[in-house]
Amino acid sequence: MSKLPHIGTSIFTIMSKMATEYNAINLSQGFPNFPVDERLTDIVAKLAKQNVHQYLPMSGYPPLLSKIAILVKNSYGRAIQPETELLITAGATQAIFTTIQALVETNDEVIILDPSYDCYEAPVLLCNANTVRVSLNDDYTPNWDRIEKACSSKTKMIIINNPHNPTGKILNESDFEILESLLEKYPKITVLSDEVYEYITFEEKHISAHTREKLLNRCVMVSSFGKSFHVTGWKIGYLVAPEYLMKEIKKVHQFLVFSVNSICQVAISEYLDLVSVNEIGSFYKEKRNYFRQLLKGSKFELMPCEGTYFQVASYASLSDKNDVDFCKWLIVEHGVAAIPISTFHADGKDLKLIRFCFAKDNATLEAAAKRLCAIQ
Questions:
Q1: Which of these, 265, 209, 217, lies nearest to 241 by C-alpha position?
Q2: 231 lies in the same domain as 368
Q3: Residues 251 and 333 placed together within one structural domain of the fold
Q4: Which of 15, 17, 123, 368 lies at a CB distance of 3.0 to 4.6 Å from 28, suitable for a disulfide?
Q5: Residue 287 CB neighbour total at 10 angstroms
Q6: CB 257 within 8 A of CB 94
Q7: CATH label of the domain that carries residue 118
Q8: 128 lies in a domain?
Q9: Would you say 181 and 189 are in contact if contact means Cβ atoms under 8 Å apart?
Q10: Cα–Cα distance between 368 and 27 in angstroms, integer?
Q11: Is residue 4 part of a domain?
Q12: How far apart are CA 151 and CA 265, in angstroms?
């Protein structure tokens, strides 16, 4: 008997497999294809011959923990205690899984805002708890009336994703004020804030839960070095949480992975002395603008993109197909892979929108855009 009877192969795996089979340009899965910063690869090459290959402490490499605390302070003005409020994880997905396993109990309810990333639901179900899926508005702003109506005495957690995958939306000041008011009414709710794209925002500055005084004792923050430093395959991220929550999270973490890849932790610790996270947003803003310019001649309608490295586009003027079939057709007939947005909705809501990843080198974006512009 399956513990996850309704969950099958992820859409990301399906589309990437099809992209390989049909030799399509893969703009589906969210990973960069350009070279990693040579400063970072040089550090790894140097460390490979040093004594950094054994287990590190369960919470993380102490110098890296100290530097993350400085990073959080510099980025958001928040002082954290690296020994008690910080945990290095094997990527953001493990961070999310571990947090939910530690804090959610049987028959609890967890509110997930759709469209939502697919790693949120499974750990809730494995806790014998229930997900309550609440749709965002069609412009992908939160519908706080619906969210509040979904809250009850059983609600244990609300998961927010900011900047938002797949839509690229970011939360504003008003959103946080309403969330804070909601938490006052429901003092048992914890917020899990997935902020893996925190340094990839454009015209508007990202407002982090780190900056909200009223949230700090009620919130677990998830970050990703893989996303920030273009090393998604390293699977390394971190959690920030108040000590009373972190104690519970560490209990699960130690039996799930115990400790995280040693050489990557040491490498990132050294790399943080050389790199500025403030450069990341401007780098991806150029990518976003270039990709949008390339698609101006196409029949796709591009949605606003405020953050992340994803561009959502409407194909409504091109086809009546549902978005899953359209994405398969796009691979087979035109050699470009994208992700259908309906798969991020529990009810399969289909607005004829698909997601492209523009974290690619310019040659890849140009080749993909040429094919997309040719579709009539």
A1: 217
A2: no
A3: no
A4: 15
A5: 21
A6: yes
A7: 3.40.640.10
A8: yes
A9: no
A10: 8
A11: no
A12: 39
Structure-block tokens of residue 335: 């050699």
Task: Using the structure block, give the residue that is written with the tokens 């050489």.
Answer: 263
CB atoms inside a 10 Å sphere around CB 171: 23
Contacts of 232 (CB under 8 A, 6+ apart): 30, 31, 32, 226
What's the number of domains the chain is made of?
2
Rounded Cα distance, 59 and 206, in Å: 27
* Count of Cβ atoms closer than 10 Å to residue 278 Cβ: 10
Q: Which residue, chain included where needed, has tokens 């900011």? A: 162
Provide the pLDDT for residue 31: 86
- Residues of the chain under the 50 pLDDT cut: none
- The domain boundary residue, chosen from 220, 251, 271: 271
For 75-202, list the strands marked E by DSSP.
86-89, 109-114, 130-135, 155-161, 190-194
Beta strands in 168-268 (DSSP E): 190-194, 219-224, 237-240
3-state secondary structure of 322: coil
Q: What's the pTM value of the predicted model, to 2 decimals? A: 0.95
Q: Are residues 109 and 148 in contact, defined by beta-carbon separation less than 8 angstroms?
A: no
Tell me the two tokens of residue 76.
Answer: 């958001």
| Token couple for 239 | 């959690």
Structure tokens at 75: 């980025």
Token representation of residue 204: 């508007």
Return the CATH number at 314.
Answer: 3.90.1150.10
What is the distance between the alpha carbons of residues 307 and 128, in angstroms, rounded to a whole number? 34
**Exposure letters 64-74 (e unless 16+ CB within 10 A, then b):** bbbbbbebbee
Residue span of the structural domain in which 235 resides: 38-271
The residues pairing with 302 across neighbouring beta strands, listed in sequence order, are: 313
For residues 167 and 140, is the Cβ–Cβ distance under 8 A? yes
Model pLDDT, residue 71: 98
DSSP letter (8 states) at residue 164: P
Token duo for residue 334: 């035109």
